[in-house]
Amino acid sequence: MLNSVKGMMLTLASTFQGLKKPVTREYPKQPTPVQPRFMGFPALTWDNDVDEPFCTGCMVCIRNCPTQCMSASMMDNPLNEEGKSHRRKIVDYFEINLNRCILCGICVEVCNFDAIVMSHEHEMSTYERNGDRVDLPALLDIGKKYQRETAWIPPTVLAKAKKEAEDAARAAAAENAEPAAAAQEAD
Amino acid sequence: MAEDRTGLATQAQMNAEPVEMLLNMGPQHPSTHGVFRMVLWVDGEKIVDVEPHIGYLHRGSEKLCEGEQYHQIITLFDRMDYVANFNNELVYCQAVEKLMGLAVPERAEYVRVILCELNRIASHLLYVGTIGLDAGAMTPTMFAFRGRERIQSLFEAISGARMMHNYFRIGGVKEDLPDNFEQLIAELLPLLKEDVEESDRILTFNEIFLTRLKDVGSISAEEAIDFGFTGPCLRGCGVEYDVRKAQPYSVYDRFDFDIPVGLDGDCWDRHWVRVQEMYESLKIIEQALEQIPEGEVVSSLGRRLIRPPAGEVYVRAENPRGEIAVHLVSNGTDRPYRLKVRPPSFCNLSAIKRLLYESWIADSVVILGSLDIVLGEVDR
Ligand code: SF4
Ligand code: SF4
């Protein structure tokens, strides 16, 4: 009996607590914001400086994909012949079957050209079985949207900047140390 | 013969041979925690025999591992025990590291420990929610899932995915913790403590819950060891065995924590052990956050193509469900020759026949729930 009363009190207390602050989100109307590192579907990036994709069609990502859900081919880059681009080869055809993709992010990790990103796209249900086989223009569109929304900077550029900053800091530290050492020697 | 007007069974009917009935439970039963099928032979409300059918979720993960490169296999381990992904990734990475003799940077070890313990709490919270459902309580599920959701949001901030993280690497972790990690975890831990305490307060000593779980599905320590029980199921019987203490791996020997043990080995003891483990995990996380050093998070060797030397290793670790072990045989190529997993849920589930024998049908879901199986791991 006493326990039942206790249980009742607990229920009441929880009910009032629950009234205070709801934690449920009405999902489709109220989308949940994703974290910056969120891994949505993979997408290809666009080099705004040269106006062409970063991807060279080198197929490294395809060999490393655990589900073999991508395919690609490369061609000679016409912009390179005109001297506008440093890329000798460029992607000709690219397709990812997003239904098979397991969002592991391995393709992004192995790409040497910053050409592929895990976008924040995650709502791509379709009514067809093959509705999520996306080709090059569609992938680039997703990628461009991602670049726009997150002010994307290629990771290699970031890493280079970081390394330069570190080197500069080290050089500055060494310079500071030198006069100190010289001063010590003078003493 | 006088007509029986009461509608009760006549003496003749009561003396008749008992009729056994076959009852099929699962695979699509809400309380079988996935797609587990049991065929129950029942005599009235008593279970006289059980035939478990596993394999509904069989994906051939072990065989798939033989065709994948070493760095791709981590994704398969994510999907084996899909409630404790980090713990699974850890044991695989440790196996390959041991085979290669690869040293993992300090910071990476701490990151791994923090994430594994958070994952243990998330997994136990899921268990608390489902055992509540099995015993007929809906509210604890909501509270437990709220806590689990918070952990998963943190996981998303760190690894980019809520469940299938693919974050641990052979030789470390994928990338360093995000810049706002300290703030995130400082916000999370008090809330998490509240969640654990709340689910504990609502459920563990609830009178109805106690009646449903006490002295149900008891098993003695000797029998449990014979069945190969590990984890909370074994500790519920009073055996103080935890791989984190018995054979410390990673940096677990640097933390001060206790191993909660039960007394009778019944469903309630298994439940109590899990709840206490959540508090212990919180303790470990707090200590790890204090000790975590700065530095690299992945060893430079791990970034190259992974090609361990020919040989074999057997590595074990403590999963939320028990002892998970990996037996890895390498022939010196970039893919393993054989990879065998010792899944804790599978070994714990092997006692289902013994546990359900002579119990009531209504208790069968509670007993199954108290074993806390994950079918992805049982069937692989
Ligand atoms: S995305 Fe990167 S790795 Fe894949 S084909 Fe293009 S350049 Fe190569
Ligand atoms: S995220 Fe993984 S599964 Fe998806 S395309 Fe990239 S490598 Fe393949």
Structure described in brief:
With 187 residues, chain A is α+β, with helices and mostly antiparallel strands. Chain A is 43% helix and 16% strand.
Helix content of chain B: 40-55%
Which structural class do you get from the secondary structure elements of chain A? alpha+beta
Tell the overall outline of chain B: globular
Oligomer: heterodimer
Number of helices of chain B: 16
- What is the count of helical runs of chain A? 6
Helix content of chain A: 40-55%
- What is the spatial order of strands in the main beta sheet of chain A? 4-5-7
Which distinct ligands sit in these coordinates? iron/sulfur cluster
Order of secondary-structure elements of chain A: HEEEHEHEHEEHH
The tally of strands of chain B reads: 8
Rg measurement of chain A, Å: 26 Å
**Main sheet overview of chain B:** 3 strands, antiparallel
Overall residue-averaged pLDDT value of chain A? 82
What does this structure look like?
The complex is a heterodimer of chains A (187) and B (380). In chain A, a hairpin with a 4-residue loop joins strand 2 (46-47) and strand 3. In chain A, 43% of the residues lie in helices and 16% in strands. Chain A is built from six helices and seven strands. The model of chain A has no long low-confidence stretch (mean pLDDT 82). With 187 residues, chain A is an alpha+beta fold. Chain A has a domain at 38-167: Alpha-Beta Plaits (2-Layer Sandwich). The radius of gyration of chain A is 26 Å and the shape is flat. By secondary structure, chain B is of the alpha+beta class. Helices cover 49% and strands 12% of the residues of chain B. Chain B contains 16 helices and eight strands. The longest helix of chain B has 30 residues, at 106-135. The radius of gyration of chain B is 23 Å and the shape is globular. The A-B interface holds A 3-4, 7, 10-11, 14, 23, 34-39, 64, 66, 102-106, 109, 118 and B 68-69, 71-72, 75-76, 139, 143, 146, 149, 153, 156-161, 164, 166, 174, 178, 201-202, 206-208. The structure holds iron/sulfur cluster (2 copies).
